[in-house]
Amino acid sequence: EYEFGDLTKQVASRVQDRVEEYTGKPYEFGDISRKVEESRQEWVKDFLGEEAAKNYQFGDITKKALSNFTGKDEYKFGDVSKK
Q1: CA-to-CA distance for 32 and 38, rounded, in angstroms?
Q2: What is the pLDDT along the chain (83 residues), one digit of tens a residue?
Q3: What DSSP designation does 24 have?
Q4: Using one digit for the tens of pLDDT, what is the confidence trace for 58-80?
Q5: Angle at Cα 62 formed by Cα 57 and Cα 65, nearest 5°?
Q6: What is the end-to-end Cα distance of the chain in Å, rounded?
Q7: How far is CA 60 from CA 20, 69, 71, 78, in A?
Q8: Would you say 70 and 79 are in contact if contact means Cβ atoms under 8 Å apart?
Q9: What mean pLDDT, rounded, does the chain reach?
Q10: Nearest CA among 33, 27, 34, 22 for reference residue 12
Q11: Which residues contact 72 (CB under 8 A, 6 or more apart)?
């Protein structure tokens, strides 16, 4: 039989389980943010390469994506529409 607060307890339990599954440990404040940042850094390193990731500047991912798309090292206006 339902009692007041049962739904909240169930949701809290499920969220806690999923967070522990995601972070690999019992939750502490900031764990999710740290895990997301670690994942982001790893993705940038995989996409740009380790050295480029260490020296990352805003726009580097876009430049790399455009280079991959156009097959050119340097982007010039109109390269995407020509593709």
Answers
A1: 10
A2: 889 999 999 999 999 999 999 999 998 999 999 999 999 999 999 999 999 999 999 999 998 998 888 888 887 777 777 75
A3: S
A4: 999 998 998 888 888 887 777 77
A5: 130
A6: 63
A7: 33, 14, 16, 19
A8: yes
A9: 90
A10: 27
A11: 79
Q: Take residue 73 and report the two structure tokens written for it.
A: 């090292």
pLDDT value at position 75? Answer: 74
One-letter amino acid for residue 2 of the chain: Y
Q: Are 66 and 75 in contact (CB under 8 A)?
A: yes
Q: Give the pTM.
A: 0.63
Question: Which single residue is written with the structure tokens 């949701």?
Answer: 11
Q: Distance (Å, rounded) from C-alpha 20 to C-alpha 24?
A: 5
Two tokens at 11?
A: 């949701």
Q: Which two tokens stand for residue 48?
A: 């740009």
Q: Which two tokens stand for residue 55?
A: 């020296």
